[in-house]
Amino acid sequence: MKKLIFILITVLFLNVQAQTKPLAVLEPTDLAISRNCRKAEKACVSMELDTVDKSLIVDRKPVNGETEYTLKVFGKLEKEAEKEHILKFIGGGDEKGCTVFGRGTAAVMGFSPMGNPIVLTDRGNLELTSKLITMGASNIQMVNLNSLKREAYLSKSQDMTPAAISRIHFDSSGDLYFIDGTECFEFRKKEAFRKVDIKKCESKKIEMKDTSKLEKIRLKSDQEVYEIKDVPYIMIIEKTTC
């Protein structure tokens, strides 16, 4: 009887140990973000990377006149589970630029079904699940002239010079296209970028001089309005002071 009691106590003790054993913690993976699209096998556009929380930056060091940042962010690498990653990123040497990282760019493959940016790294595509990381800028708005509904789009850069604006195009449905070099890419908010016919990047934009008919749209002093030929939309560009 004593032997049976001893066995039961031992089994109970082992069960308690098994239940209280801490779960395995996924170790962070070291990754480096590609700053351009040269190594991309699919449609890819270089876009500015930014963060709304500088505490993600755990280290920085000068590299050839630029700055290498080390970030701790959560994301999904290829088909792996979400976990924390140690992310290396080369930013511009001028941290007073439009973003926390100056003029640094990342190779962006598009967006996940959840709307998270997908960047190219030295170990594959990484979906950045941290909402503290942003790609491009939201200083472009499309306004439907019928409903007056505003919708923000990502742009390649916050530097909205005439040259940058000329790269942005829309079709009659208001879908967004971006010309990069001699190639035209379709932007969808929750899909990978797609390379499309260059003719999709031929919309005509002219600066709207008379904005009196836009009384219901409260424009700011630093905003410019562009009409798009044969499209029921206008484009509002918010100038920045980069």
How would you describe this structure to a colleague?
- The protein has 242 residues and is mainly β.
- Helix content is 10%, strand content 43%.
- It contains 2 helices and 18 strands.
- The protein has helices at residues 2-20, 162-165; strands at 29-32, 45-51, 57-63, 66-77, 83-91, 105-111, 117-121, 124-128, 133-135, 137-144, 150-155, 168-170, 176-180, 183-187, 194-196, 205-207, 223-228, 233-238.
- The strands form 3 sheets. Strands 1, 2, 3, 4, 5, 6, 7, 8 and 9 form a 9-stranded mixed sheet that branches. A 5-stranded antiparallel sheet has the order 11-10-18-17-16, with no helix packed on it. Strands 12-13-14-15 form a 4-stranded antiparallel sheet, with no helix packed on it.
- Strand 17 and strand 18 (233-238) form a beta hairpin.
- The protein is globular and about 55 Å long.
